[in-house]
Amino acid sequence: MGGDHGIAVTIPACVSFLRSESGAYLLLVGRQADIEPALSAALGGGDSLRQRLEIVDAPEVVEMDEAPASALRGKRRSSMRLAIEAVRDARADACLSAGNTGALMAISRFVLKMLPDIERPAIAFQLPNRSGGTTTMLDLGANVDCEPGHLFQFGLMGSALVTALEHRESPPTVALLNIGEELIKGNDTVKQAGALLRESSLNYIGYAEGDDIYAGNCDVIVCDGFVGNVALKTSEGLAQMMGAFIREEFSRNWISKLMALAAAPVLRRFKRRVDPDRYNGAALVGLRGVVFKSHGSASLAAFEAALRRAYDAADNRLLDRIRASLDQVRANSNDPAGSSSVVLSS
Amino acid sequence: MGGDHGIAVTIPACVSFLRSESGAYLLLVGRQADIEPALSAALGGGDSLRQRLEIVDAPEVVEMDEAPASALRGKRRSSMRLAIEAVRDARADACLSAGNTGALMAISRFVLKMLPDIERPAIAFQLPNRSGGTTTMLDLGANVDCEPGHLFQFGLMGSALVTALEHRESPPTVALLNIGEELIKGNDTVKQAGALLRESSLNYIGYAEGDDIYAGNCDVIVCDGFVGNVALKTSEGLAQMMGAFIREEFSRNWISKLMALAAAPVLRRFKRRVDPDRYNGAALVGLRGVVFKSHGSASLAAFEAALRRAYDAADNRLLDRIRASLDQVRANSNDPAGSSSVVLSS
């Protein structure tokens, strides 16, 4: 029900996803009276897909600008709440929403609870990089003030997420976001988090700077939610500005318009490489269940990409991987020589 | 002497700047034995320019990777130190360096001292935006942990800087960098800084998010140095990646190469609009003197742009403007109804 376009986008995206992913089964949680006609229109004649989806009627909807506390306490029959409860009750392997991020976080935390020893959920997102792969960044806004132990836990969960989403053989490289060496090197929180990561069994490679997000030299970049959110939004703003400038230059006069026509295939390929639709779908990690968040303004293709990401995470046992990483840290901390106990009990 | 290219770039840039700015007079501070031949080569036959420049011999050079404390205590005859002393002694109206940022900050602070009631210097930088103007952002790395009063002071200095550099009639708009409304709205420091800015005589317009840096809807964006540095470096990384992708797509095969040739004028105009060279030159504000920092890897054109920025700031009495703003805040705080006293005494 959520997002800027609601079921006008989500339902056709679900149908398209089911067509391409023959092993998937979807619960569509929302107002049945609204979903039914949209679904019939999207399915067309292909009724066989109906066997792989089910509508779960939810009378209430969390508004995009609603306070998380109000959504949590006041709307116990919202589509968001029922979808997350389906994950809790093992009726679903993952939940995806394009709705209110704060409410999704609050309800997920309340309904699913946190994994043992994880204190805070984080929002993790995959961004394209120069090497043609992706860089996974977390946290992107769930936690404004972080302690070193939280940043360490983000590294651990980010590493497990990349392993699950990208079918890695070798352990993903993890870096900690910091500022230039010329300047005062980071704050105390970052320094202490660096020490925890260095001591851990993660494939920690040290500090990264902002430009490393797109350089393709590390798989996971860890930062607090304020910094991560600013980095992500700054990127969105710059990409939009550059896109607008390219369009303006190519439509300046009839010669440049002709050039735009001629160069269209090249420009299309370029656009596809940085297309935000392909990267839609942020993971809410740290919970006892798989929850993904789609951008509110997601297009059909973007929402489908987020569905695929949530499906892949569940299919590749994201939770088991995070649990295994936690067990490993716990085992090390029981070792008298280990010094990681502080990390999971901070 | 500083930067990645040293006098191979700085000297020709100085000569080019002098040619275009007939009112300028330059002190070239560095190793005279190195500067003399480079200068002769750059000047060619145009000896009349020589009357508007002077070499100040400095036997020592601060290395790019040297610790600020070592540069400050150990090198009292460095080019950086002597250049800043020339500002202190009113032999120069502004200082520009492409050298070690941390050392430039430390030596400037020690030699020039802070303006009254300003506790910390900040690094301010102008970025291009969609409306064709620039957005001035500070701090970009001088201060990792900021209190609300510091962020307020950055707003004040940023506002004065934009007034000086852009010859504004109306007071520049000032915004405070924060994260999305859906999420937990910023930390306590940001909230308290917002309250101080709201009460002040600045043209404060509220919170901005990362994408507003490039949207062109505010003149000054204030943030702590960690966040600002990450936003700037993230932008550099994304712009480099997009540039690399465009080049790759246009050189993929002979058809796309032909397209690149044909579209070259359009692509050149686009490139010029986002060319980092044009925006080179960060101001170190809060000091009792005008100090600018060029990017270490600056090209000739970029270093010349930074020279022009430093010249404009001095020419438009940047320091007087910051002092006047401080006086105004102080006057308000003497007013019994005023509540800004906390800001300048925090």
Strand order of the largest sheet of chain A: 3-10-9-4-5-8-6-7
Structural class of chain A: alpha/beta
What is the distance, rounded to the nearest whole angstrom, between the alpha carbons of the first and last residues of chain A? 38 Å
| Sheet of most strands of chain A | 8 strands, mixed
Shape of chain A: globular
**What portion of the residues of chain A fall into strands of 2 or more residues?**
5-15%
Mean pLDDT across residues of chain A: 88
Largest interface: A-B, 66 and 66 residues
Radius of gyration of chain A in whole Å, from Cα? 21 Å
| Total strand segments of chain A | 10
Q: Which oligomeric state applies?
A: homodimer
Instruction: Name the helix and strand elements of chain A from N-terminus to C-terminus, one letter apiece.
Output: HEHEHHEHEEHEHEEHHHEEHHH
Helical content band of chain A: 40-55%
Number of helical elements of chain A: 13
Which regions of chain A have little confidence, pLDDT < 50, spanning 5+ residues? 336-342
Using brief descriptors, characterize the structure shown.
two-stranded parallel ribbon, alpha/beta, homodimer, eight-stranded mixed sheet, 10 strands, 346 residues, 13 helices
Walk me through this protein's architecture.
The structure is a homodimer of 346-residue chains. The first copy, chain A, is an alpha/beta fold and 346 residues long. Chain A contains 13 helices and ten strands. In chain A, the strands form two sheets. An eight-stranded mixed sheet of chain A has the order 3-10-9-4-5-8-6-7, sandwiched between helices. In chain A, a hairpin with a 5-residue loop joins β4 (122-128) and β5 (134-138). The longest helix of chain A is centred in the C-terminal third of the chain and has 26 residues, at 225-250. The two termini of chain A are 38 Å apart. The interface between A and B is large, with 66 and 66 residues.
